[in-house]
Amino acid sequence: MANDRPRLLYIDDDPGLSRLVQKEFERNGFVVELLASGAAGVERLRASNDVDVVALDHHMPDQLGLDTLNMISTLPNPPPVVYVTGESEGRIAVAALKAGASDYVIKDASPEFLTLLRAAIDSALEGRRQMYLREQAEAEMRAARDRFEALANERAVLIREVNHRVSNSLQLIASLLQVQSSAQSDMKAAQTLLNAYKRVSAVARVHKRLYASADVRFVDLADYLCGLVEDLRQSADQGGRMLQFLASQTRIGTDFAIPIGLIVTELVINAFKYAYPAGDGPIRVKAERAGDLITVQVEDDGIGVTEQDWRRGGGIGSKIVLAMVEKIGGAINIESSASGTCITITFTAADPAPELNMVGDSLTSVLVIADSLGRTVSIVEEQDEIEPPVLMLVEDDPLMRMVVAGNLEAAGFRVEEAGSGEEAREIWHRTGGVAAAIIDIGLPDCRGDQLASEFRASIPNMPIILATGYDEKVVAPGFVGSRFSRVLAKPYDDAALLGILSSLGVTGGTVPVTEVSPVVAPHAN
């Protein structure tokens, strides 16, 4: 309300009845204004919105009340109008109500007229009050919903950031374990560290999927296990492994993803170690969903092992599998014969996002037949007469730089390390160019893509990989356009980095594919 006392605008060309209405309503706590024409009433309402209710006569000298009513209805936030008419015909009252009047009263000089007018005006004021309260409640609900959505969005961003940081830390730990394993002369200790690396990588992959996902409630099981199986293949300690992966497109809650990743990791490692003592053979990983029932299988065609021997095994792998199966409330079944072993894990898990329509429900098969990273390294070591390609690694985090450089050197590269743009330029000038460069986007003295542009000025076709923890479409729109460029999402994924280098024609232990002369040393912009 504009005032503590409600304001009534009474529009009527009858001065006697107008004064009677004014006297009656002022005695009952109203502030009453009197006007004798519809046009004047519209102008009064247009000038100020402090009127709470209008009483409007039908017959006036300048225009009919219906015309005035239509004009009032076009004003912003018009007050309620009680239509007053001396006509007893119902059609006028109906027309007034259709035009927007809240009520109507038949005008005469009897005391009942003032009583009826007072009731109609009180009803109009109450209706307006209820409408105001409803609008206020709706506004508060919208504001609360907006606050909730903002908090939900902020929470999702924070969760993704936490998963990003956890993934970075786990990837760093995994890389340190891998470097330490390659440095061990004791084969048993090296294998123990390598197995620990695989377990940490399985956990890190879940968090990497989560911070890259739009919905942190679930992980795509097929996509996750496919990447995990490929990581296991590349980190295998013998060549010639054949891994077959078969999975249905399904979602799985994040509480289940890490245990399933550890289970598959342990079962595949065990198959690598024990299934084929005389050589190599196929290992198949399969995952399917049927309603809420999810089945995960790891199968080989090796020598087989009895369930009793498997459960009584002294290694930590079987203990991890049993603990993870118990954690997810699942069951394990071991079928073994002379033609191989099949270990099946079953558990129930509702789809965490059933409203999302996934593309296809058919099984997706990925067949991987290739030498492992370990075999490739051994070949490079035997061919030491071939000078390894020189890579430049520009990364300001010294610990991360050490780990990545160690992995690249283990893969048969020679690495020149730099922690800033200035150091990178000095290396470039000293070496006369490199086979490829891995450059972090955020350096203490310049941007990584700016540094890459300097190198490109000397060798336009040199492969350069931009490492970034941000969206590649945002940080390097022009840099990524070249067909020789790639973007690697941090943390540094060893398999992804080596795969990108290979796709650019730069492989460990081989002659660099990029001609590096003549070379002009770049200069700072």
Number of strands: 18
Mean pLDDT: 77
The biggest beta sheet reads: 6 strands, mixed
**CATH fourth-tier homologous superfamily of the domain at 241-371:** Histidine kinase-like ATPase, C-terminal domain
Structural class determined from secondary elements: alpha/beta
CATH architecture heading of the domain at 241-371: 2-Layer Sandwich
What fraction strand? 15-25%
Measured as a percent range, the helix fraction is: 40-55%
Q: Total helix count?
A: 16
**Order of adjacent strands in the largest pleated sheet:** 11-12-10-9-7-13
Alpha-carbon distance between the termini?
66 Å
**CATH fold call of the domain at 241-371:** Heat Shock Protein 90
Which regions are unreliable across 5 or more consecutive residues at pLDDT < 50?
A: 357-385, 471-484, 510-525
Overall CATH class of the domain at 241-371:
Alpha Beta
Radius of gyration: 39 Å
Would you mind describing this structure in some detail?
With 525 residues, the protein is an alpha/beta fold. Among the domains are: 7-109, Response regulator (Rossmann fold), CATH 3.40.50.2300; 241-371, Heat Shock Protein 90 (2-Layer Sandwich), CATH 3.30.565; 384-503, Rossmann fold. The protein is 48% helix and 19% strand. It is built from 16 helices and 18 strands. The chain has helices spanning 15-27, 38-47, 65-73, 90-98, 111-182, 187-212, 221-234, 254-275, 307-311, 316-327, 373-382, 398-410, 421-431, 448-458, 472-475, 494-503, and strands at 7-11, 31-35, 53-57, 81-85, 103-106, 218-220, 242-248, 251-253, 282-290, 293-300, 331-337, 340-348, 363-369, 390-394, 414-418, 436-440, 464-468, 485-489. The strands form four sheets. Strands 11-12-10-9-7-13 form a six-stranded mixed β-sheet, covered by helices on one side. It has a five-stranded parallel β-sheet with strand order 2-1-3-4-5, with helices on both faces. Helix 14 links the parallel strand 16 (436-440) and strand 17 (464-468). Helix 7 runs parallel beside helix 8 (254-275) and helix 8 packs antiparallel against helix 10. The longest helix is centred in the first third of the chain and has 72 residues, at 111-182. The protein is elongated. The relative contact order is 0.07.
